[in-house]
Design brief:
Structural class: mainly alpha
Protein backbone atom coordinates (compact mmCIF):
# COMPACT_ATOMS: atom_id res chain seq x y z
CA UNK A 1 0.00 0.00 0.00
CA UNK A 2 2.81 2.42 0.88
CA UNK A 3 5.67 3.09 -1.49
CA UNK A 4 9.31 2.81 -0.30
CA UNK A 5 9.82 6.57 -0.36
CA UNK A 6 6.79 7.28 1.80
CA UNK A 7 7.79 4.52 4.25
CA UNK A 8 11.19 6.08 4.79
CA UNK A 9 9.63 9.54 5.19
CA UNK A 10 7.18 8.19 7.75
CA UNK A 11 9.97 6.37 9.60
CA UNK A 12 12.06 9.55 9.70
CA UNK A 13 9.11 11.57 10.99
CA UNK A 14 8.45 9.02 13.74
CA UNK A 15 12.13 9.03 14.78
CA UNK A 16 12.10 12.84 14.95
CA UNK A 17 8.96 12.78 17.07
CA UNK A 18 10.57 10.28 19.47
CA UNK A 19 13.74 12.40 19.66
CA UNK A 20 11.67 15.51 20.43
CA UNK A 21 9.79 13.64 23.13
CA UNK A 22 13.08 12.55 24.75
CA UNK A 23 14.42 16.13 24.60
CA UNK A 24 11.18 17.39 26.13
CA UNK A 25 11.51 14.94 29.03
CA UNK A 26 15.14 16.03 29.60
CA UNK A 27 14.14 19.71 29.65
CA UNK A 28 11.31 19.01 32.09
CA UNK A 29 13.77 17.25 34.41
CA UNK A 30 16.12 20.25 34.21
CA UNK A 31 13.28 22.66 35.00
CA UNK A 32 12.19 20.55 37.96
CA UNK A 33 15.81 20.47 39.23
CA UNK A 34 16.13 24.26 38.91
CA UNK A 35 12.80 24.78 40.70
CA UNK A 36 14.03 22.55 43.54
CA UNK A 37 17.23 24.62 43.79
CA UNK A 38 15.20 27.83 44.02
CA UNK A 39 12.90 26.36 46.67
CA UNK A 40 15.77 24.92 48.76
CA UNK A 41 16.82 27.59 51.27
CA UNK A 42 20.09 25.86 52.26
CA UNK A 43 21.91 26.78 49.04
CA UNK A 44 23.98 29.89 48.51
CA UNK A 45 22.25 32.95 47.11
CA UNK A 46 24.34 32.98 43.93
CA UNK A 47 23.25 29.39 43.14
CA UNK A 48 19.62 30.39 43.63
CA UNK A 49 20.10 33.51 41.48
CA UNK A 50 21.81 31.45 38.77
CA UNK A 51 18.94 28.91 38.79
CA UNK A 52 16.39 31.73 38.61
CA UNK A 53 18.20 33.16 35.58
CA UNK A 54 18.40 29.81 33.80
CA UNK A 55 14.78 28.86 34.48
CA UNK A 56 13.07 31.30 32.03
CA UNK A 57 15.52 30.36 29.25
CA UNK A 58 14.90 26.70 29.87
CA UNK A 59 11.13 27.21 29.92
CA UNK A 60 11.34 29.17 26.68
CA UNK A 61 13.36 26.37 25.05
CA UNK A 62 10.81 23.84 26.28
CA UNK A 63 7.95 25.89 24.83
CA UNK A 64 9.74 26.12 21.49
CA UNK A 65 10.36 22.38 21.49
CA UNK A 66 6.72 21.71 22.34
CA UNK A 67 5.61 23.98 19.54
CA UNK A 68 8.03 22.33 17.10
CA UNK A 69 6.79 18.92 18.23
CA UNK A 70 3.20 20.01 17.72
CA UNK A 71 3.92 21.16 14.17
CA UNK A 72 5.97 18.03 13.53
CA UNK A 73 3.08 15.90 14.73
CA UNK A 74 0.65 17.82 12.53
CA UNK A 75 2.98 17.33 9.56
CA UNK A 76 3.26 13.62 10.35
CA UNK A 77 -0.53 13.29 10.59
CA UNK A 78 -1.01 15.15 7.30
CA UNK A 79 1.56 12.91 5.60
CA UNK A 80 -0.12 9.81 6.98
CA UNK A 81 -3.60 10.98 5.93
CA UNK A 82 -2.35 11.98 2.49
CA UNK A 83 -0.72 8.57 2.06
CA UNK A 84 -3.78 6.77 3.37
CA UNK A 85 -6.19 8.71 1.18
CA UNK A 86 -4.08 8.75 -1.98
CA UNK A 87 -5.58 6.83 -4.84
CA UNK A 88 -3.51 4.53 -6.97
CA UNK A 89 -4.57 4.81 -10.60
CA UNK A 90 -3.60 1.22 -11.26
CA UNK A 91 -6.24 -0.02 -8.81
CA UNK A 92 -9.85 0.30 -9.89
CA UNK A 93 -11.40 0.18 -6.44
CA UNK A 94 -13.74 3.12 -6.85
CA UNK A 95 -17.35 2.24 -7.55
CA UNK A 96 -19.75 4.65 -9.15
CA UNK A 97 -23.02 5.21 -7.33
CA UNK A 98 -26.05 3.37 -8.70
CA UNK A 99 -27.93 6.57 -9.50
CA UNK A 100 -25.11 7.43 -11.89
CA UNK A 101 -24.84 4.12 -13.75
CA UNK A 102 -28.26 2.42 -13.50
CA UNK A 103 -31.08 3.84 -15.63
CA UNK A 104 -33.69 2.07 -13.49
CA UNK A 105 -32.45 3.78 -10.34
CA UNK A 106 -32.52 7.16 -12.09
CA UNK A 107 -36.09 6.53 -13.26
CA UNK A 108 -37.01 5.43 -9.73
CA UNK A 109 -35.60 8.64 -8.27
CA UNK A 110 -37.51 10.69 -10.84
CA UNK A 111 -40.67 8.74 -9.96
CA UNK A 112 -40.20 9.40 -6.25
CA UNK A 113 -39.67 13.11 -6.90
CA UNK A 114 -42.78 13.21 -9.11
CA UNK A 115 -44.81 11.43 -6.42
CA UNK A 116 -43.58 13.92 -3.82
CA UNK A 117 -44.59 16.83 -6.05
CA UNK A 118 -48.01 15.24 -6.61
CA UNK A 119 -48.47 14.74 -2.86
CA UNK A 120 -47.63 18.40 -2.28
CA UNK A 121 -50.04 19.47 -5.03
CA UNK A 122 -52.78 17.21 -3.63
CA UNK A 123 -52.34 18.74 -0.19
CA UNK A 124 -52.53 22.23 -1.70
CA UNK A 125 -55.66 21.30 -3.68
CA UNK A 126 -57.33 19.88 -0.55
CA UNK A 127 -56.66 23.13 1.24
CA UNK A 128 -58.06 25.08 -1.72
CA UNK A 129 -61.13 22.80 -1.84
CA UNK A 130 -61.79 23.35 1.85
CA UNK A 131 -61.42 27.12 1.46
CA UNK A 132 -63.66 27.09 -1.61
CA UNK A 133 -66.31 25.02 0.19
CA UNK A 134 -66.31 27.44 3.14
CA UNK A 135 -66.56 30.40 0.78
CA UNK A 136 -69.36 28.75 -1.22
CA UNK A 137 -71.32 27.90 1.93
CA UNK A 138 -71.07 31.46 3.17
CA UNK A 139 -72.02 32.92 -0.21
CA UNK A 140 -74.92 30.48 -0.59
CA UNK A 141 -76.30 31.50 2.81
CA UNK A 142 -76.05 35.18 1.87
CA UNK A 143 -77.70 34.60 -1.53
CA UNK A 144 -80.59 32.66 0.05
CA UNK A 145 -81.11 35.39 2.62
CA UNK A 146 -81.10 38.00 -0.16
CA UNK A 147 -83.54 35.99 -2.29
CA UNK A 148 -85.89 35.51 0.65
CA UNK A 149 -85.76 39.20 1.48
CA UNK A 150 -86.38 40.24 -2.14
CA UNK A 151 -89.24 37.78 -2.67
CA UNK A 152 -90.94 38.84 0.53
CA UNK A 153 -90.69 42.46 -0.63
CA UNK A 154 -92.09 41.51 -4.08
CA UNK A 155 -95.09 39.73 -2.54
CA UNK A 156 -95.70 42.58 -0.14
CA UNK A 157 -95.55 45.15 -2.94
CA UNK A 158 -97.81 43.05 -5.19
CA UNK A 159 -100.46 42.73 -2.49
CA UNK A 160 -100.21 46.35 -1.35
CA UNK A 161 -102.89 47.57 -3.79
CA UNK A 162 -105.49 45.01 -2.75
CA UNK A 163 -108.09 45.79 -0.12
CA UNK A 164 -107.26 44.43 3.33
CA UNK A 165 -110.30 42.08 3.30
CA UNK A 166 -108.93 40.25 0.26
CA UNK A 167 -105.28 39.90 1.36
CA UNK A 168 -105.83 37.17 4.01
CA UNK A 169 -107.32 34.88 1.30
CA UNK A 170 -103.97 34.64 -0.45
CA UNK A 171 -101.46 32.21 1.02
CA UNK A 172 -98.14 33.99 0.72
CA UNK A 173 -95.26 31.46 0.83
CA UNK A 174 -92.40 32.35 3.16
CA UNK A 175 -88.82 31.14 3.70
CA UNK A 176 -88.32 27.40 2.95
CA UNK A 177 -91.70 27.05 1.29
CA UNK A 178 -90.85 29.84 -1.13
CA UNK A 179 -87.52 28.16 -1.99
CA UNK A 180 -89.28 24.81 -2.61
CA UNK A 181 -91.74 26.48 -4.96
CA UNK A 182 -88.86 28.15 -6.81
CA UNK A 183 -87.12 24.75 -7.24
CA UNK A 184 -90.29 23.23 -8.65
CA UNK A 185 -90.62 26.04 -11.16
CA UNK A 186 -86.96 25.70 -12.15
CA UNK A 187 -87.35 21.90 -12.58
CA UNK A 188 -90.36 22.40 -14.84
CA UNK A 189 -88.43 24.92 -16.96
CA UNK A 190 -85.51 22.49 -17.31
CA UNK A 191 -87.87 19.66 -18.38
CA UNK A 192 -89.46 21.94 -20.97
CA UNK A 193 -86.02 22.85 -22.36
CA UNK A 194 -85.02 19.16 -22.54
CA UNK A 195 -88.20 18.33 -24.47
CA UNK A 196 -87.49 21.14 -26.93
CA UNK A 197 -83.91 19.92 -27.41
CA UNK A 198 -85.13 16.40 -28.23
CA UNK A 199 -87.42 17.66 -30.98
Amino acid sequence: MFSGKSRSAAKTAIEEALHLRKAQDTLRDSIKNLENIIIDGALELYEIAEAEMELPNLQERLDKRLQARKFERDRLERTFRRQLNSLDDSEQTTYLPLWLVDEGVRMGIQGILLRDRCDEELQRLRYELKSLAEWHSEEWTIVNMAIAAIQAVQWTQALAGLPSEVVPCFAVPEGEELIDVQHEVDAELIEDEDEMDQC
